[in-house]
Design goal:
Layout: H1 2-5, H2 8-14, H3 16-46, H4 56-68, H5 71-80, H6 91-123, H7 127-153
Helix pairs in contact: 2-3, 2-5, 3-7
Length: 156
């Protein structure tokens, strides 16, 4: 949101190189996440008691990096926020209210999503959990490949 407020969206729209670098960083991150999920599934099958729970900070950082490395989010906020900002009033108070409102609403939605995922994960144990991690990792790698192909095929 801050990047959109500071006109990073204009930079990304104007600079094909910046957008391409961010896209390839996203591809690499998705590949890393998918590979890690598949390897974790293999290791948890070999030694189920060795599986560790990720800390809340680790989970938050993972979500933040995923979201922050998405250039479409900057473009989304750059397109959304101007519709609700009056040029007759000071910019920053309006921007902060919009950002806080969006963050609260998104936080509520993601909390429900996370609690639902936790509820489901508690019920998937043993071989089911291993296959969920393998399939999920495969989808991450597939998403990385699709993003990479889209980036290569995109007109410059």
């Amino acid at each position: 949101m801050l990047a959109a407020g500071l006109d990073l969206a204009v930079l990304l729209a104007a600079s094909a190189t910046a957008l391409t670098v961010i896209k390839w960083a996203g591809v690499a991150y998705l590949l890393w996440l998918g590979t890690r999920m598949i390897l974790r599934a293999k290791n948890s099958h070999d030694a189920p008691e060795a599986a560790k729970r990720a800390s809340l900070i680790t989970l938050w950082l993972q979500g933040f990096i995923t979201s922050a490395s998405n250039p479409k989010a900057v473009v989304f906020f750059a397109a959304l926020f101007p519709q609700f900002i009056s040029p007759d009033l000071p910019f920053w108070p309006q921007f902060l209210i919009l950002s806080a409102t969006y963050t609260f609403m998104d936080g509520c939605f993601l909390s429900i999503y996370g609690l639902s995922a936790h509820w489901i994960a508690k019920r998937l144990k043993g071989p089911k959990r291993i296959w969920i991690d393998r399939v999920g990792g495969g989808f991450m790698i597939g998403a990385a490949l699709l993003l990479g192909l889209k980036t290569v095929a995109a007109p410059r």
